[in-house]
């Protein structure tokens, strides 16, 4: 078989491909290159679609350590193309993740270093959450992807930029199947904006001032709609204005008799349900409320009130129901009168000045389907 060298039209890398091949997929960026004399509209569209999908696969391949080697002088082979063996990279930039594990999580903690709206507890939150998932629920450590703007973080793919968070969410949901348990935890700024349909909620990546926020509709499309039947996803969102951040169909509310019931939100959310899997979101507060960083709960360490009360409640009462979990978390935060460090929102300074320590923050629970809050046990 005679080989020849051709450049990828997407990344420009020089590739070695068989002489008779007329189209190949770059094994580095996964872009599609056509070698034929003409390019039809169909082939151009095909190339564009595969290039977009390939950007995500390239992200996953980069963060996963690879042990593929052979004796032919090439590092690997894709369906259509070959690529030369790359130079070794520092192992710290290539952590090993088991993408197809039945339990996996994405944890994002953002401090916004050097900003007037910087936070103090977010990175503590994700570190505590990782320990909690591993110790209490048996999540493999190498199936937990942490994104933080910790000054010690040297891997550019672990910085919680908008692009990295979007890629991480796709990693979380890709190849999920019945029986899987997935977790998305975010501790950082949340915001609320007006659009043509009313208000929309969003989270703020570390680079949101340059590249924008991640809207509730985007999060729903990334990890809610694609979740397959039989899989479950828990989202723990420690941010302001986060009550309906996943755009789920049902919101837990307390009726006049003091019992939790379900409010059907499908009419105002265009029924953006999961594909059959169960999605449950535990968020820091209602859409119109703010959340806090505080040292009052732990005694010393600054944490998000939602994250700390969630971990503490589950650890103290193994096997508790979702209704009990929500009630205890609300009671814990309601009793926090001192030690508030900063409100978790862009208007923090003004709110701290006028509201003082009496903060109204009620954790919320929403779901893709209704269940009995008092009998269904919390489990990951």
UniProtKB/TrEMBL annotation:
Domain (Peptidase C14 caspase): residue spans on this chain: 103-371
SUPFAM superfamilies listed in its UniProt record: Caspase-like
Pfam families per record: Peptidase_C14
Gene Ontology biological process: proteolysis
Superkingdom field: Eukaryota
Record protein name field: Metacaspase-1
Single GO MF annotation: cysteine-type endopeptidase activity
The family this protein is said to belong to: Belongs to the peptidase C14B family.
PANTHER family in the cross-refs: METACASPASE-3 (PTHR48104:SF17), METACASPASE-4 (PTHR48104)
GO cellular component: cytoplasm
InterPro entries cross-referenced by the UniProt entry: Caspase-like_dom_sf, Metacaspase, Pept_C14_caspase
